[in-house]
């Protein structure tokens, strides 16, 4: 049945895919955003506004559900929830698996959530992002109770990903010449877990239609994907044949390579993150989450990246500069020969 959806955000990555899927399914879509991160898709109604400011532009509407795609501070999420109380039947909050307190063991939806050292902080950084998401969830629950649907995605990947973290790998492989050494982190059997933004969008629409509530971890099933498979899919999609050189985590750490940022998706040897990519996602899969084949995600992400204007194909915040990678490969060859 067609729904009327309000999307807070909806022009950039996760929200954009959600808007696209909702429009394709015949739902009515209204986007609320500032107009800084892209244009609304054709067919969507657009309301301009800043969630940090005046929300009165939302006071005339009525929707079946809101999907809040850009909530990072509990005060702002609480204000949005209050403004929409009585105007939407269901509040869907895009949270994160980072909301959990601890990643040494796999987390299920009832695992303890992170707690802020300073409950009044408005600084969103590596330390506060997760516990702030947990506090945002609580703010939604306080206003919407059983009508709150809390979506905790793992790493979100696919076309339009502005972070470059996953895209780094297909792009790096595609940039390599046949036979060129390419540095790979850890071990080919290291586990990876993520969610294609299009599968996330489909699940959100499905969960809303089913009247689901409560929390859902949304990602591939644990132990399905490994780093070696990812690079193999990158090779197949790119049609290049680099020489993949695996460097152990211990060796990379000794070279001061920083996990996640400089070698995307690699988490090093930190026991505090041992199960970060092994969360329990059974509740979402039982409720209808379907994840497309990894090869499709890789190929589509590469095609999207290749179609970007050259000035947008860089990775300013992600990955190793090529010079540094070459220097490390040379040292690795020496270390392995001795
Ligand atoms: N990327 C991941 O791996 C990952 C993993 C887990 C969870 N998540 C969660 O997924 C959600 C979506 O991520 P994303 O990267 O797609 O989102 P995002 O880049 O934070 O959100 C961008 C969207 O929100 C709008 N927006 C931003 N600030 C706004 C404001 N003050 N008022 C109104 N609209 C505003 C933007 O439009 P304007 O700029 O035009 O306003 C744009 O449409 C986030 O909540 C994130 O925490 C992401």
Describe this structure in words.
This is NAD-dependent epimerase/dehydratase family protein. It comes from Ideonella azotifigens. The strands form four sheets. Strands 3-2-1-4-5-6-11 form a seven-stranded parallel beta sheet, sandwiched between helices. Strands 7-10 form a two-stranded parallel ribbon. It has a two-stranded parallel ribbon with strand order 8-13. The longest helix is centred in the middle third of the chain and has 16 residues. It is globular and about 70 Å long. The chain has two domains: 150 residues, 3-Layer(aba) Sandwich (Rossmann fold), CATH 3.40.50; 117 residues, no CATH class. It is an alpha/beta fold. The chain is built from ten helices and 13 strands. The N and C termini lie far apart (66 Å). Bound molecules: NADP nicotinamide-adenine-dinucleotide phosphate. NADP nicotinamide-adenine-dinucleotide phosphate binds next to helix 1 and strand 7.
Keywords:
338 residues; alpha/beta; 2 domains; seven-stranded parallel beta sheet; two-stranded parallel sheet; 13 strands; Epimerase_deHydtase; Lipid_A_modif_metabolic_enz
Silhouette: globular
Identify the bound ligands. NADP nicotinamide-adenine-dinucleotide phosphate
- The gyration radius over C-alpha positions equals 21 Å
Beta-strand content: 15-25%
Element-by-element helix/strand order:
EHEEEHEHEEHEEEHEEHEHHHH
Q: How far do the termini sit from each other? A: 66 Å
What are the low-pLDDT stretches, counting only 5+ consecutive residues below 50?
A: none
Structural class: alpha/beta
Return the CATH class of the largest domain.
Alpha Beta
Largest sheet: 7 strands, parallel
Whole-number mean pLDDT? 97
Q: What is the strand tally?
A: 13
The number of distinct helices, counting runs of at least 4 residues, comes to 10
- How are the strands ordered across the major sheet? 3-2-1-4-5-6-11
CATH topology of the largest domain: Rossmann fold
Tally of structural domains: 2
Percent helix range: 25-40%
